[in-house]
Amino acid sequence: MTDLAHNPASVRARLIDVAARAGVSVGTASKALSGSGRMRDETRERVLGAAEALGFTPNRNAQSLHTGRSWTIGLMTTDGIGRFSTPVLMGVEDALGAGKISVLLCDTRGDTIREQHRLRLLIERRVDGIIVTGRRTDPRPPLAGVGSIPTVYAFSPSTDPRNVSVRSDDAGGATLAIEHLLGLGRTRIAHVTGPTHHAAARDRAARTLELLGRAGLAPAGGRVHYGDWSEVWGRRAADAVIRTAPDTDAFFCGNDHIARGVADALRERGVRVPEDVAIVGYDNWDTMALSARPPLTTVDMNLGEIGRLATLQLLSIIDADAREAASVTVPCLLIVRESA
Amino acid sequence: MTDLAHNPASVRARLIDVAARAGVSVGTASKALSGSGRMRDETRERVLGAAEALGFTPNRNAQSLHTGRSWTIGLMTTDGIGRFSTPVLMGVEDALGAGKISVLLCDTRGDTIREQHRLRLLIERRVDGIIVTGRRTDPRPPLAGVGSIPTVYAFSPSTDPRNVSVRSDDAGGATLAIEHLLGLGRTRIAHVTGPTHHAAARDRAARTLELLGRAGLAPAGGRVHYGDWSEVWGRRAADAVIRTAPDTDAFFCGNDHIARGVADALRERGVRVPEDVAIVGYDNWDTMALSARPPLTTVDMNLGEIGRLATLQLLSIIDADAREAASVTVPCLLIVRESA
DNA sequence: CCAAGTTGAGCAATCGTTTTCTCGACGCCA
DNA sequence: TGGCGTCGAGAAAACGATTGCTCAACTTGG
């Protein structure tokens, strides 16, 4: 208290101060600032001037208390802020743009206890809505206890179909990759990807096999090569495939790590990319895709768009203008560089 | 309103409801829940029970309005959520732990207009404090218009020495690297790093030269090799250095990208790492450091600790228990793997 | 010139908690 | 038995804004 007196900014001007300076009542001041209510232009300008002069910033807490809207949304990320949640988060920020809505960040570290705790905090703050995201495309159980708070799942969809989820189109991504390779005239295509217990790996593999089958082809090496998402696996798998199926002319990889490993292994064996063998990666993760030799042609999941769309859906649910609020799938983009 | 009646959770129980159910006054209910005030145990338990039964969650907006504390801090990141701000952010979350403080995220995209807009939002929400971070160690001008809101700069320090900044110890990081290499008996050490207009590059280079000089040595190649932070540069620089100074026996690289490029170039020339030439990277960025061949010995800036410390400093300033609030420098860690 | 509108601005209730008083009841000791 | 201290609980005033209502002062029209 004592300190505040010395410190002009911490004893922020209140509406009542603005009103006093403008010589009007609080009510009038409020109406002048919000643009509602009728009054003489001269009066309105007097209030605006006073607010300006005092550096008035409305107290959103007070406002929220009265209006019931907090102009805040919660963003729950289930396991850290990582390679996937970051672009989603940026998309969210983008969609919120220059508006008055802010984002409360909650990182649960994949811990359910923590998730519940954070959720409670969000509820106490009376957030207008919640966006849930994670680093896997595998569906996750819905957030327990959100009650009637509008919630949208981004990237990591909810297992409950009644929830609104914004997904990445894994099948579509595989389609882009395979059709690109087929279009290049490649017919002996290997698919090297992550572990089977990842939906992303399974979904992309399924579509890959489907498309190859439809074209009368079988995958190089006779099957999908499941492993982990690492470069090491990419190198190992490439060696194995080339050994067992030397006529392989393309690799579709489950992510850019793997693709880079494949590229390295091929180069070291003297195989030319893309002349002899083409490579398509997945994720379009700059760090990997651009410094690979050659730079990778890869599938971009358009994560920013996922975040953006999730936000728009959420906003429309909040405004009860829920006509548009339904689960959607965001198409991928094929980024063509030098490897295919 | 009409809708709320159907929807139990959206018409959240208020303190007055709890009080009614427990047969006490609001004041008493408040005291019971907060643990303050004296009352019979029986009364307190009755209130607690009622709160439990109604699923009462206090409205923090109302609370904040009255107490003046919002239990919220703002996190301004100046250019996207990236490789550096993410770990810092996680450190912040860590320090906040299971407490009642939440983080409002503001990404300014390096745009001053946007920064001002976000800052205004934070002020309107009456945040208790602000943490500013960015992706460069170069000092940045202080956040304009924070007034008396406690502010701490993390990783990207403020140009104003009166502000509290938590920095990474670039000189210390270089010291760890060089002393490690010297300890390994290496004497012809090259330093390949980023552009001169990055303070990080300059600071580490300066210390490197200083330590080498003190040991009576000159850098391999006769000078510091400034370039960019990329693998491509690492490869090019390694080639050039080996050509002009074939007796080079170690590389200290400005980041792990460069180090990885160096490792690749050396391997392809048949130079053995670490037997013939040792490599130390910087950043300990898993993706790069672990999949390099061999895995990189590298300097870890301990970014999480920077975030954690910044948060603790901020909290102590907020509590006006500012005895500890002063700029600090967080030491780096040397992570020894196989490359040196 | 008077009644009926219109306009501009103030009053006061309200949002959900916290916190300071106030006050009755009870126990204890002289 | 009377006075005093303690204890437990309620009443009510904040906190800072919004908004429906009231009402005085003008306009306007008959």
Describe this structure in words.
The structure is a homodimer of 340-residue chains. With 340 residues, the first copy, chain A, is of the alpha/beta class. Chain A folds into three domains: 56 residues, lambda repressor-like DNA-binding domains (434 Repressor (Amino-terminal Domain)), CATH 1.10.260; 127 residues, Response regulator (Rossmann fold); 131 residues, Rossmann fold (3-Layer(aba) Sandwich), CATH 3.40.50.2300. Chain A is built from 13 helices and twelve strands. In chain A, the strands form two sheets. Chain A has a six-stranded parallel sheet, with helices on both faces. The first copy, chain A, has a six-stranded mixed sheet with strand order 7-6-8-9-10-12, with helices on both faces. In chain A, β1, α6 and β2 form a beta-alpha-beta unit. In chain A, α6 packs across α13 and α10 packs across α11. The longest helix of chain A has 16 residues. The termini of chain A are far apart. The interface between A and B is large, with 52 and 52 residues. β2 of chain A pairs antiparallel with β2 of chain B. Chain A binds a DNA duplex (30 and 30 nucleotides) through α3 and α5.
| Oligomer description | homodimer
Number of distinct beta strands of chain A: 12
Elements of chain A, N to C (H/E): HHHHHEHEHEEEHEHEHEHEHEHEE
Distance between the termini of chain A: 67 Å
Tell me which protein chains meet in the greatest interface and how many residues each side has: A-B, 52 and 52 residues
Strand order of the largest sheet of chain A: 2-1-3-4-5-11
- Uncertain runs of chain A with pLDDT below 50, 5 residues or more? 1-10
| C-alpha geometry of chain A | elongated
Number of domain units of chain A: 3
- How much strand of chain A? 15-25%
| Full CATH superfamily name of the largest domain in chain A | Response regulator
Mean pLDDT of chain A: 92
Helix fraction of chain A? 40-55%
User: How many DSSP H or I helices of chain A?
Assistant: 13
Q: Which CATH first-tier class of the largest domain in chain A would you pick?
A: Alpha Beta
Radius of gyration of chain A: 27 Å
- What's the CATH topology label of the largest domain in chain A? Rossmann fold
